[in-house]
Amino acid sequence: MQSNMTDHPPPPRPMLSGVRRVALSLFLTIFACFPGSAQAEAPVLSLPLDCDPGRTCWLVNYVDHDPGPGVTDYRCGRLSYDTHKGTDFAIANDAVMNRGVAVRAAAPGRVLRVRDGVPNSTPADLESATALRGRECGNGLVIDHGDDWTTQYCHMQAGSLRVRPGDEVARGDVLGNIGRSGRSEFPHIHLALRQGSRVIDPFTGDSNINACAVDARAQGMWTPDLKDKLAYPGPQPFHLGFADGVPKKSAIEAGQLGRTRFAPDAPALVFWTEVFSLDKGDRITLSLQGPDGKPVADNRIEIDRPLAKWHGFVGRKKRGQGWESGTYTGHVMIERGTARIEKSAAATVE
Fold it and tell me: CA-to-CA distance for 286 and 312, rounded, in angstroms?
C-alpha cells in the first residue's frame, strides 16, 4: 500500500533574538494555562513497541536540540544526530526482528497515511546518496490525535502493517512489526511527534528544541509508568556472546553467533559485545577468563567520538593440546567519568 506519507522534515524555524525568544516563551507559557489551549489536549504517549526498556529494547537517539550543524539531546548530551526529529527505540538484532516485535499505537487516533512494501535496507542503499531519497522513513504511518497533534512511525517491516488510512486505533493497538526499512542501519522504530509543523520532543513536552538542560528529567508526555523506565541512559552493553574465530559484524547484527558450548579443539575462543550510546572519552575493558579465573585475553579501548552503536571483541587462538574444559567468562566494563557499567556472559568448553 502506498500513500503520500512524507519523509521530509518541516522547514526550519527562523532564529529569534534572545529578547524575542524570552518574550515568546513567556507568552506560550501563559497561553498554555488557559482551558482549551493546544497544550491541554496534548496526547499522552505509551511505549510504541512490545519490549522491556533496558532489557529487550534500548533508547538510542533523541530529538536533536541543536539548531545548527551540531548535535545535542534534551539533556545536552550527544544521543542524537544532526536534524533528528524523533525518538529511536532499538532491538537487539535481525534475528529478534524476524521473530516479530509488534509496533503499537502510542496514543489513540485516526490513521492518516500509510506506506508499505519498502524492503529492508542494504549496506549499498545506506551508502548511496539517492537510493532511499523520498523513502527515508521506509514503511510507516502517521496517526492524527486531534487538535493538530500527530505521531509518525518509521522503519517498519514490509508487509507487516495492519492498518489503513481512516482506521481508528486505540492506545496499544498493533500497527505492524518493527523493521529496518528506509534509512536504518539496525532494527528500530522511529517515533516522531508534531503539533502542526512543529517538532515536539516527548521528553520535554514542548517545541523549544533550541534549549537543553543537563539535569532535565523525562517528565514530558509519557505515561507515568514510563517516566522511570525511560530514564536517560548511560552506555548500554546490550548484546554479548562468543565465537570460535573473529566475529563478523554482519553475523553479530544478524543474531547468528549464539553458541555457548565449544569443543576443546576449537580454533579460537572469542568474547564479543555490542554497545549502544557511547561518548567520546568512554573507556572500555573487554576480558576473557578461563575456568581457573585467570585471564585468557583482555583489551582496552578509549572511544574517540560519540557512537550510537559499537562492537568489539577479545580472545585468542588455541594453543598446545587445546582448551581446558570448564566455564569461560567474558566481561565488558565501560567507564564514563566516575561511573562504571559492567556486564558478563559465560560459555562452556566440553
Answer: 8
Terminal Cα distance for the chain, rounded: 52
SS3 labels along the chain: CCCCCCCCCCCCCCCCCHHHHHHHHHHHHHHHCCCCCHHHHCCCECCCECCCECCCEEEEECCCCCCCCCCCCCCCCCCCCCCCCCEEEECCCHHHHHHCCEEECCCCEEEEEEECCCCECCHHHHHCCCCCCCCCCCEEEEEEEECCEEEEEEEECCCCCCCCCCCEECCCCEEEEEECECCCCCCEEEEEEEECCEEEECCCCECCCCCCCCCCCCCCCECHHHCCCCCCCCCEEEEEEEECCCCCHHHHHHCCCCCCEECCCCCEEEEEEEEEEECCCCEEEEEEECCCCCEEEEEEEECCCCEEEEEEEEEEECCCCCCCCEEEEEEEEEEECCEEEEEEEEEEEC
- Are the beta carbons of 270 and 328 closer than 8 angstroms? no
Instruction: Render each residue's pLDDT in the chain as its tens digit; 350 residues.
Output: 444 455 544 333 333 344 444 343 433 333 343 333 334 479 999 999 999 999 999 999 999 999 889 999 999 999 999 999 999 999 999 999 999 999 999 999 999 999 999 999 998 999 998 889 999 999 999 999 999 999 999 999 999 999 999 999 999 999 999 999 999 999 999 999 999 999 999 999 988 878 899 988 767 899 999 988 999 999 999 999 999 999 999 999 999 999 999 999 999 999 999 999 999 999 999 999 999 999 999 999 999 998 989 999 999 999 999 999 999 999 999 999 999 999 999 999 99
Residue 229 is which amino acid?
K
The radius of gyration of the chain from alpha carbons, rounded to an integer in Å, stands at 22
